Amino acid sequence: xxxxxxxxxxxxxxxxxxxxxxxxxxxxxxxxxxxxxxxxxxxxxxxxxxxxxxxxxxxxxxxxxxxxxxxxxxxxxxxxxxxxxxxxxxxxxxxxxxxxxxxxxxxxxxxxxxxxxxxxxxxxxxxxxxxxxxxxxxxxxxxxxxxxxxxxxxxxxxxxxxxxxxxxxxxxxxxxxxxxxxxxxxxxx
Amino acid sequence: xxxxxxxxxxxxxxxxxxxxxxxxxxxxxxxxxxxxxxxxxxxxxxxxxxxxxxxxxxxxxxxxxxxxxxxxxxxxxxxxxxxxxxxxxxxxxxxxxxxxxxxxxxxxxxxxxxxxxxxxxxxxxxx
Lengths: 189, 127
Fold this sequence. Notes:
A: alpha+beta, 4-stranded antiparallel sheet, B: alpha+beta
């Protein structure tokens, strides 16, 4: 009986380890944003106003690719790949380059001005996997939608009318057939 | 002539290195530690043009990349208003004030605005 218990525990641990490995392969074996495959263009350069900041914080300026208005993908020291928004200041986030999407359909960020419960400005920008054709930002009683660019980028700036409905509650990734591929719940504050 | 050119080149490199090194002071103001849902931290207000905060980052998030691993970084002005806020779910979440627009009193702030617990640290750069 004791041997069976030990065997069961061992099998359980093995299953857990295999699951972890599969998850790791799934996360690291993904394709990076397709925009990294294309040559740089003059329009890919970060605006002069933020280059000094970017350089000081370890961003590789030569790797910048503009994916939509005011939105870039750029490499950073330490093996990171970052989504950067320059619509107001310079903000963004970074993931390890080998698992940038982390199995998700979108990588995005929310830029704001004002208090979290009543922002006076709000912009959601990001980069999508190739199968995503549109993104939809949902407020309580109103939606804003935009198509992804040829580089997978998108940016939605909330209108005053939209902000009158409060903070957005969710972001939908919509496929080419119009089906919602994934819905992301947004933070309440 | 060649020696003078070499000397000028060496001095130029040294000056550039010094300039880059003196440009920013990085300061960790919270962590690395465990952050429960809703936990936040902030540093002290800057006090003069010579020490203005211009970068704020929460990095090393243990859940980074997961769809619910939210963090918020922002600058809080002396009147309590928030500016240059940014939220995302990545391993590192950062925001900055553009050069030339940073000369006002503010402090960096970070928050675990997700519903989960994770480890991370918060740091900023100032002059």
